[in-house]
């Protein structure tokens, strides 16, 4: 991360904008930490870039959901189920959900599309989304900035490495658990299919029972 800003300078802010357009919590945290420890990153410019990037990214997903409905999500694995969950949260919590979905793991990427699919008006979503993007950007920029001030660069590097390793191990474990569950489900279905059908009881057998 330090090398990115050292090598690209102002262009790195464009990368931060593009990254936050897609998601980018981890990127923003580490970029802010680099700014605190090296002085290469201006936190206010970073804040503005990721605020606008996040806002425009979710406006795009909202438009896709509003314009194309559930069909826009069918090509994304698991998206339909997550949209159903997000739509339920939206129906229950309304504006509070729009302000907070960036912090909810699992549905963050589809929540804006769910708002569009649900028929939320453009001005209402744009206003709430702009506020929410600001809350998100401020939270991650300043958490990264102030936490970095509590540790040495060496400790931060080791912490980043540990977090990266933990995330990697988590996804590896999830992959094998999901594969094991799928194999067990297939085995149960195969065993059930292999069982011979039971013959219906005759009248005499039913009467004897």
Structure notes:
- The protein starts with a helix and ends with a helix.
- The model has no long low-confidence stretch (mean pLDDT 80).
- 78% of the residues lie in helices and 0% in strands.
- Helix 2 (11-22) runs parallel beside helix 4, helix 4 (43-68) runs parallel beside helix 7 (111-117) and helix 5 (79-93) packs across helix 7 (111-117).
- The protein is built from 10 helices and no strands.
- The longest helix has 42 residues, at 153-194.
- The radius of gyration is 25 Å and the shape is flat.
- The chain folds into 2 domains: 2-150, no CATH class; 151-189.
- By secondary structure, it is mainly α.
Q: Which helices and strands, and how do they pair?
A:
Elements lengths: L1 H7 L2 H12 L2 H14 L4 H26 L10 H15 L1 H6 L10 H7 L4 H27 L4 H42 L8 H6 L1
Helix pairs in contact: 2-4, 3-8, 4-7, 4-8, 5-7
Tally the beta strands. 0
Output the radius of gyration.
25 Å
Alpha carbon gap, first and last residue: 77 Å
- Major sheet, described briefly? none
State the share of residues found in helices, binned by percent: over 70%
Percent of residues in beta strands:
under 5%
Q: Indicate the overall shape.
A: flat
So how many helices? 10
Low-confidence stretches: none
Give the SSE string.
HHHHHHHHHH
Mean of residue pLDDT values: 80
When the domains are counted, the total is 2
Q: Determine the structural class based on helices, strands and strand pairing.
A: mainly alpha
């Amino acid at each position: 991360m330090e090398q990115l800003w050292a090598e690209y300078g102002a262009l790195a802010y464009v990368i931060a904008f593009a990254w936050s357009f897609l998601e980018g919590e981890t990127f923003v945290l580490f970029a802010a930490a680099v700014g605190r420890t090296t002085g290469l990153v201006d936190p206010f410019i970073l804040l503005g870039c990721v605020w606008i990037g996040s806002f425009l990214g979710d406006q795009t997903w909202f438009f896709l959901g509003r314009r194309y409905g559930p069909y826009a999500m069918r090509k994304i694995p698991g998206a339909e189920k997550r949209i159903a969950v997000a739509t339920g949260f939206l129906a229950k919590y309304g504006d509070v959900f729009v302000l907070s979905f960036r912090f909810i793991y699992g549905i963050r990427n589809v929540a804006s599309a769910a708002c569009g699919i649900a028929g939320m008006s453009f001005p209402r979503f744009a206003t709430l989304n702009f506020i929410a993007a600001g809350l998100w950007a401020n939270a991650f920029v300043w958490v990264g900035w102030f936490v970095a001030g509590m540790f040495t660069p060496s400790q931060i590097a080791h912490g980043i490495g540990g977090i990266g390793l933990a995330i990697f191990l988590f996804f590896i474990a999830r992959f094998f658990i999901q594969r094991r569950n799928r194999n067990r489900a297939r085995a149960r279905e195969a065993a059930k299919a292999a069982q011979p059908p039971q013959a219906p009881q005759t009248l005499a057998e039913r009467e004897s029972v």
